[in-house]
Design a protein that fits this description.
Length: 190
């Protein structure tokens, strides 16, 4: 499957693979070796992110960058990965890891390890990215299907064009609710 994707998009297109914590160390080692010829930009969450020693072992044998972070919470868990030299890319999510402030602290902590925030709150991640050096945050994740749901009630809806998305210049995150889409809601009394 990976080979078919590589052949379809060509050698110059960046491909990353997301395992969503699905493998153990033995299987991940074999798979990463097998995928080297495909030239992955990174392997994401090849093993559960709390297995820091296994990440370190995998990284020592892999010739592919190893990424994790959407299920890593707060700078303290990031610190463990960094201190053990266990990861090439940090992907903490602004929602899950503790918000803007914590993600910004993680950017400072990561130093030379790039931070590519997970894309649930794409607009929050985008604002943090815009405030950091491109060497610290070289890109942000955009979930092609997920963002259609998450921005359903928004106007404007932010989507990348040619891989680039502009930082909104509206107040706050740039979220404006489209009232026409939420007219049918029922009043809720607490
Ligand atoms: Mg992921």
């Amino acid at each position: 499957m990976a080979r078919a994707v590589r052949e379809a998009v060509g050698q110059d297109y960046e491909l990353m693979f997301d395992v969503f914590n699905g493998w153990d160390l033995t299987y991940a080692t074999e798979m990463v070796r097998g995928l080297e010829l495909i030239g992955p930009g990174w392997m994401e969450e090849p093993i559960p992110s709390d297995r820091v020693n296994e990440f370190r072992k995998l990284r020592t044998v892999a010739r592919v960058p190893i990424a994790t972070g959407e299920h890593v919470y707060t700078r303290w868990q990031v610190k463990e990965l960094l201190l053990r030299d266990a990861v090439d890319v940090i992907q903490t999510d602004p929602d899950w890891t503790g918000g803007f402030t914590e993600l910004t602290k993680i950017c400072a902590l990561a130093f030379e390890v790039p931070v590519v925030a997970h894309g649930h709150s794409m607009l929050a991640a985008l604002h943090v990215a815009a405030a950091q050096a491109p060497t610290t945050v070289p890109r942000a994740e955009f979930l092609i299907r997920g963002q259609e749901t998450k921005q359903f009630f928004h106007d404007p809806i932010y989507r990348p064009e040619g891989g680039d998305v502009s930082v909104p210049d509206l107040p706050g995150l740039g979220i404006v609710l489209d009232e026409t889409k939420i007219e049918g809601r029922e009043e809720v009394t607490f």
